[in-house]
Design brief:
Chain A is an alpha+beta fold. Helices cover about 30% and strands about 25% of the residues of chain A. Chain A contains 16 helices and 22 strands. Chain B has two domains: about 150 residues, no CATH class; about 160 residues, no CATH class. Classes of the chains: A alpha+beta (about 475), B mainly alpha (about 325).
Chain lengths: ~475, ~325
């Protein structure tokens, strides 16, 4: 919120002016109101591995994270470039693999990668789209210096929080929104529905000419993101289906309705690849639909995101993203990566081992902030334990410098206090183009000094504002 | 709509209705035992458990019938999968899994109801707080029903919601009558004796019917007119005839929507034949108990046919 010299940054000027005029005890009561709102409406997530899969709230902080129109323009150019490159990369990986032939990417990286699916080789997904929905995790390290921390190309979650956080803010502080010009995010579900419809199989577009039927496939109410699945289906006017609702009938994927089976054209699945089709992947899966991959390969249903896009989530692939962007777009990447050492490379491994106390080390396939080492905040003992793991299996790790992440104030009992944040904008991709919702989800590490923003580890969220010109 | 969702909605409203009716039955039983000696009290608790179909489950754990023990078992015992608490939990779970078929208002009513009853039933309910607690159960169910009425589209979802409500209600009314049917037989009408009019009052109270009945009958209290009222009165919303009128209407709306009648419609017509143009005398001649047993079986057949016709499960 403040520049290094202590002045209020341009983005926050309007908000700061408003905040200064508010009574502190009133703000405290608002904070309480927000929590009871979230609980009443059931905006919760389930935590895996806890005794009774208790439903928890993701803490919401009511101080917005604000981005100026100019900052956003530059950011969104970089995001669009990256998402286009990711999509081209997926197509290439499952077709001619030019990037490997050219020597820019080592083949072993995806040959040994569980997310890479041989079933997708040579197949063209409807509309040529692989990554219908992408979440790009960004961190800021200085004025106008955003770095990409991670690409989420499987099933990025959290977009319902982006929407609900905004609704909550508008309900609690209506006059604030009349003072500050914030770009709306509420049309995301409509855009998502349109974008998915544009990716329907050609037969549908030609055939009935009607509106494609879209369904959101959820693993069910015990999934940690179930609330979001129901929310998005509801907002899009799509059916929320579970695997047991779907069946392959007459070469189409169909859902069991009260009057019989009805074909589904586009499936926005929130089920992992592995569980999608017990006939093709994990035979024990009850979350998926037997035979859906055959229908998919016959071009008679769209699966979003396409199976096999998880390769791009991989942290070892991530380290090659600058090359990947350049290879497919012919341009220099607009958004830089965080420097990354691949521990598979002996020189890098040596450097990482020599500097463990300063680095962040992550598992290549890890997520959710688990299985990582944050050198500067770890004890000597923790570092040595991790060192042993690293030496035993260097291929499984990458390392990054500990960044001086930007902070954003949160509301605490003792007033405003700075905490580290990241930002996940949501990007839609269809034959009609790439669309980025202005803003995204800001996650915030609620513990003082902490760099881990994941909700499973005590992170919270904030409303994210992009100002209008 | 999805068959699974129709199933979830149908049962969500059955659970809500059953939770409410259980609270009503418990309140009437509790009141009854306050005015009678220990023998009558224990008899009354036994009949409450019989009505709820919980007698053997209860007896597997307890040797005697005390108010505190019975209430605890019915309301919140972990050993009773049909407890009010688990009913409310199941209703809420169903609401969650059918979240996109419900309006925000209905979901919030069910979710908040679950939150408040979960807190209320976290510990054993003290005798002094029992009425308040039973009142809260009824209120939460009423709020959900009100939100349904006031916010839901009159579409297929609403049809299954209402079918679940009235099918469960008809079942509950019939069961309450059947457990107490001997009190309503004309041969036992000792008009004016303290015991019987107390028992009759109790039957009426279990269905929240005491005021309506009195208002219509101006002080006359006899078995025949009570049975007539609870079975055949078209104005009383918990009577068998009333519930069936609602079910018939909802089923015919579904038929209109889908453009076809199914087995459920046939079963409904069969059940109607048993009820239509009947007088209470004819029912007594057939035998009240036999009539109620037939009714409950017919009701179950309708429920089974609905599940089948509308593809509730794979």
């Amino acid at each position: 919120m403040h520049a290094p010299d202590g002045s209020v940054r341009e983005a926050y000027a309007g908000y700061q002016e408003w905040l200064g005029a508010q009574d502190e005890s009133w703000m405290r009561s608002k904070n309480f109101e927000a929590e009871s709102f979230f609980r009443r409406t059931g905006i919760t997530f389930n935590v895996y591995g806890e005794d009774d899969a208790e439903e928890r709230l993701i803490p919401f902080d009511m101080v917005p994270r604000i981005i100026t129109a100019g900052e956003w323009r530059r950011l969104s150019k970089g995001i669009e470039q990256r998402v286009r490159a990711l999509n081209a990369f997926m197509h290439d990986l499952y077709h001619r693999q030019e990037i490997i032939r050219s020597g820019r990417l080592p083949e072993r990286l995806f040959r040994n990668n569980k997310a890479w699916l041989p079933q997708m080789v040579g197949f063209n997904p409807p509309g040529g789209v692989y990554t219908h929905i992408t979440g790009i995790d960004l961190v800021r390290t200085g004025p106008d210096e955003f770095l990409v921390l991670e690409d989420n190309a499987r099933t990025p979650s959290g977009v319902s929080y982006m929407l609900e956080n905004r609704e909550t803010m508008m309900a609690m502080f209506p006059e604030l929104f009349s003072k500050v010009n914030v770009r709306p995010v509420s049309d995301y579900p409509r855009r998502l529905a349109n974008s998915l419809a544009a990716c329907a199989p050609e037969a549908v577009a030609k055939g009935s000419g009607g509106k494609p039927t879209i369904a959101v496939l959820t693993p069910g109410i015990y999934n940690s993101a179930y609330y979001e699945h129901a929310f998005l289906a509801d907002q899009m006017g799509a059916e929320l289906v579970e695997g047991s609702d779907l069946r392959v009938v007459n070469g189409r994927v169909q859902m069991r309705t009260t009057i019989g089976f009805k074909p589904v054209d586009v499936i926005y699945r929130r089920v992992d690849d592995e569980f999608l089709d017990p006939l093709t992947f994990n035979p024990a899966s009850v979350l998926g639909v037997p035979g859906i991959m055959d229908v998919y390969r016959a071009g008679r249903v769209t699966i979003a995101n396409a199976p096999g896009t998880g390769v791009a989530d991989d942290k070892a692939i991530y380290s090659f993203m600058p090359d990947i962007v350049e290879f497919y777009t012919g341009e220099k990447p607009l958004l830089p990566n965080v420097d990354t050492w691949r521990c598979a490379d002996p020189d890098s491994l040596k450097y990482v081992l020599d500097n463990l106390a300063e680095l962040v080390v992550k598992e290549v396939h890890g997520s959710g902030g688990y299985g990582m080492l944050i050198g500067p905040t770890s004890s000597r003992q923790e570092i040595e334990t991790f060192r042993a793991k690293l030496i035993a299996d260097p291929d499984n790790y990458i390392a990054q410098p500990t960044l001086s992440l930007s902070t954003c104030p949160i509301f605490t009992r003792k007033g405003l206090a700075p905490r580290h944040v990241d930002l996940r904008p949501y990007v839609l991709c269809s034959p009609d183009g790439v669309e980025i919702t202005p803003g995204g989800l800001t996650r915030v590490a609620l513990k003082k000094g902490s760099l881990v923003v994941n909700s499973s580890q005590g992170g919270g969220t904030k409303d994210s504002w992009v100002l209008d010109d | 709509m999805l068959g699974r969702v129709a199933n979830g909605i149908f049962w969500m409203y059955r659970y809500l209705e059953r939770a409410e009716n259980t609270a009503r039955l418990l309140a009437a039983g509790h009141r009854m035992t306050l005015t009678r000696g220990p023998d009558v009290a224990s008899q009354e608790w036994k009949s409450v458990l019989t009505t709820l179909g919980l007698k053997s489950a209860y007896e597997a754990r307890h040797g005697d019938y005390t108010g505190a023990q019975v209430s605890d078992f019915v309301l919140r015992s972990r050993h009773n999968p049909e407890s009010v608490l688990s009913m409310v939990e199941r209703a809420r779970t169903n609401a969650r899994s059918c979240r996109s078929a419900l309006t925000g208002e209905v979901w919030e009513a069910v979710n908040e109801g679950w939150m408040s009853l979960r807190d209320l039933l976290e510990k054993p309910v003290r005798d002094a707080n029992l009425n308040q607690c039973l009142h809260a159960i009824r209120r939460e169910s009423t709020l959900a029903r009100g939100a349904t009425h006031g916010s839901m589209l009159r579409n297929e979802t609403y049809g299954f919601a209402r079918l679940g409500t009235f099918l469960e209600r008809a079942d509950n009314t019939a069961r309450i009558l059947d457990v107490k049917y001997y009190l309503l037989l004309p041969s036992l009408s000792y008009v004016g004796t303290a015991l019987d009019s107390g028992q009759w009052d109790n039957v009426l109270r279990s269905l929240s019917a005491e005021r309506a009945y009195r208002w219509l009958n101006a002080g006359r209290m006899d078995a025949r007119s009570i049975a007539d009222f609870l079975i055949l009165d078209t104005r009383f919303p918990r009577s068998l005839v009333f519930c069936y009128a609602m079910m018939r209407q909802n089923l015919s709306e579904l038929a209109q929507l889908h453009g076809e009648e199914n087995e459920a419609h046939m079963r409904m017509r069969e059940a109607d034949l048993r009820l239509a143009d009947r007088t209470i005398e004819q029912i007594f001649d057939q035998g009240l108990h036999e009539f109620l047993i037939d009714f409950i079986a017919g009701n179950q057949a309708i429920a089974g046919a609905i599940a089948q016709d509308y593809r509730f499960t794979n």
